[in-house]
Design goal:
three-stranded antiparallel β-sheet; two-stranded antiparallel sheet; single chain; 2 domains; alpha+beta; GMP Synthetase, Chain A, domain 3; 27% strand
Length: 180
């Protein structure tokens, strides 16, 4: 069994590697999702299964968070983990990190009513950190993390979204027209 590396060592090694070899920092995560029933879906992320559903009032079975809630969960998890990771790297002592994230959107967008955008109009967060270290140092790191969190950055800036729609005939495996 190999020696377990500390998170501080892992972060330092990655920073050094990505500084020397920027091409090594290229990361292209991929997920595969499938509709199971009604509004319930299952998505494979590496070896993990992420479930999604809507509440009963929205026509789902309330088996899991809905996709927009999962986006907020990704925001919260990203800022918490990134803060903790870099606090370790910088030698800050952290007792706890919690995030509360809330979004506001107009559901008319989802239902294609009135030309309203379907996405968030606003996302608000509170990042709660308990640390015995100097408050200005902890705050500076938290602000730096928020400026460099991939999930936050993806929400703040326009992101190109491209793809294709493939349509098959039931039972034949025959594919119809695929368009980008």
């Amino acid at each position: 069994m190999g020696r377990e590396r500390s998170l501080k060592d892992i972060v330092a090694t990655r920073i050094e590697c990505f500084t020397r070899r920027p091409e090594a920092a290229a990361y292209a995560p991929k997920v595969t999702s499938r509709h199971v029933r009604n509004l319930y879906t299952e998505t494979r992320v590496r070896e993990h299964l992420v479930k999604s559903d809507y509440g009963e009032a929205a026509g789902g079975e309330n088996q899991a968070p809905n996709p927009i809630e999962l986006l907020l969960a990704a925001f919260a998890a990203c800022i918490e983990a990134a803060f903790f990771e870099f606090a370790e790297h910088e030698g800050l002592s952290v007792t706890s990190v919690e995030a509360e994230v809330e979004g506001r959107l107009d559901l008319r967008g989802l239902f294609m009513i009135g030309g309203v955008p379907a996405g968030f109009q606003e996302v608000r967060y509170v990042l709660r950190i308990v640390s015995a270290d100097d408050e200005s140092r902890v705050r500076a790191l938290a602000e730096k993390v928020l400026d460099h969190c991939p999930v936050v950055d993806s929400l703040r800036q326009p992101t190109a979204v491209t793809g294709a729609i493939e349509i098959s005939r039931p039972g034949t495996g025959e594919r119809g027209d695929a368009r980008e």
